[in-house]
Structures are given as structure tokens and as C-alpha cells.
Write a structure and sequence with these properties.
It is built from seven helices and seven strands; from the N terminus they run βαββαβααβαββαα. The protein has a single domain, classed as Rossmann fold, CATH 3.40.50. The protein has 233 residues and is α/β, with parallel strands linked by helices. 31% of the residues are buried. It has helices spanning 15-22, 45-53, 82-87, 98-129, 143-147, 203-208, 212-223; strands spanning 5-9, 27-31, 41-42, 67-72, 132-138, 154-156, 170-175. The two termini are 23 Å apart.
């Protein structure tokens, strides 16, 4: 696909943004947080999605037909691991009363509902607007894998094979565009496989991090147009 500019939503690390820029594609990060000092636009994206869906003025009005939106949509309530929390079966919850478990399950379900509505709205405004979008989310035992009506066009079942720290199977939806299928002859540097335990602080942030090498390979393979392919020995 030919892309003039990429808007990276829900990315504050700058990982994809910086690799896109290195490959000659202008890109900017949008997120409500700026922990890494890379967020170009600190904005409440959920509020912007709601406004755009209701046809009110929003930042989506500034997206050009030749732009690409790359959304790393939050997965905290879609991942399969959350099922244990719904049932109150995580180690620290097993001693809870049935009422405590019910109250937690209700709270989690409301959060899941809100996230699901937002991602559906995001797809809707992209389809209405006609601009291209890629959406990333985990694949295995995922709520979206089971219930979402639109199927992903790229599924990466082992990210370590493309230079990432984590195997973490990932799916990618392409809206109003098709993935390229470029062959990239570029060797990958070895990166140590990592595992995040539930005892670590900020585990969700760590699990969501993507290695810059993986980001570059993804862009080269699926985003750059044929004439933009990189043939590196």
C-alpha cells in the first residue's frame, strides 16, 4: 500500500513510529499516557472514538485518504487470561467469598463491554471514512477471535521468528486495505526470548512491548508498497 503518513494509536513507546520514520514514512504516536517520552499527541483516544462515531468533530477528521491508522488497541480485557479473573480463580482470589467474586466479575464484564464497544466503533468510523487502518491484538484464546465479526488478514503465531522477544501470537486486521506480501532478504539479529511472570510490576506494559526489529520487519513485509520493498543482503 502507498502511505503518506501513519497515525499510531495507543502507542507511547515509539517503536513502530520510529521504524516507520527510518523507512521514510512520517509517523506520530497518540496515547493518553507518555511514560516513554515518545507520545507526540497526548489524547483520550476513547473519547475521540466516541465523538467520531457520533459524527462529532474529532481528531479523525484530520486523517487523509492516503494516511494509515495503526491501532494497538488495548487487550487487557480481551486476552484469555482474564477468564480466570472472571471466575475468581486467580491465586489471590480463591479465598474470596462468592459475593466478592460476583462483584468483580460484574466490574470486569462492564470494562470488557466498554472496550468491545470502542473497538467496534473504531472499525465503524474507518469503514465510514474510507481511510486505511491496521488493528493489532493478541490471537490465542482472545475474546475478539471468538466473537468479532471481521476476521484478521494476518496472524503471526510466533513473533520470535520475526525478531521479537515474545512468542505471543498476534492477529492483525486490515481495513480498507490489503496486506502486502513482500519478501525481505534481511538477516535478523538474535534477541533473547522473554517471559513475563504475573508477579512482576507493570507486567501488562512489558507484555505489550514489541521489539523494534519485529516492527521493522512487519512494516517491510506487510505495509510498504511493492516499489518500496527493501532488499537487504
Amino acid at each position: 500500500m502507498k502511505v503518506k503518513k501513519v497515525h499510531c494509536l495507543f502507542e507511547q513507546s515509539g517503536t513502530f513510529k520510529n521504524e516507520l520514520i527510518k523507512l521514510g514514512i512520517p509517523a506520530e504516536d497518540y496515547d493518553i499516557q507518555n511514560e516513554f517520552g515518545e507520545t507526540d499527541h497526548v489524547v483520550d483516544l476513547f473519547a475521540e472514538i466516541d465523538k467520531a462515531y457520533d459524527r462529532e468533530p474529532s481528531f479523525f477528521d484530520n486523517i487523509d485518504d492516503c494516511d494509515l491508522v495503526f491501532a494497538f488497541f488495548p487487550c487487557t480485557r480481551f486476552e484469555g487470561q482474564i477468564q480466570m479473573a472472571f471466575r475468581g480463580e486467580r491465586p489471590n482470589e480463591r479465598s474470596w467469598s462468592d459475593e466478592q467474586k460476583i462483584m468483580q466479575s460484574m466490574k470486569l464484564h462492564e470494562e470488557l463491554h466498554n472496550l468491545y464497544m470502542r473497538i467496534c466503533k473504531l472499525f465503524a468510523i474507518s469503514l465510514r471514512g474510507g481511510w486505511s487502518m491496521i488493528v493489532e491484538n493478541p490471537y490465542n484464546q482472545n475474546y475478539l477471535t471468538t466473537y468479532f465479526p471481521i476476521k484478521p488478514k494476518v496472524i503471526d503465531k510466533d513473533r520470535t521468528k520475526n525478531g521479537d522477544h515474545y512468542k505471543k501470537p498476534t492477529q492483525y486486521w486490515f481495513v480498507n486495505c490489503e496486506p502486502e506480501n513482500n519478501v525481505v532478504y534481511e538477516s535478523l539479529e538474535y534477541v533473547k526470548t522473554k517471559t513475563i511472570t504475573h508477579r512482576e510490576q507493570n507486567q501488562q506494559t512489558k507484555r505489550s512491548m514489541i521489539h523494534k526489529q519485529y516492527a521493522k520487519r512487519f512494516v517491510q513485509t506487510y505495509v510498504l508498497s511493492t516499489e518500496g520493498r527493501v532488499w537487504t543482503a
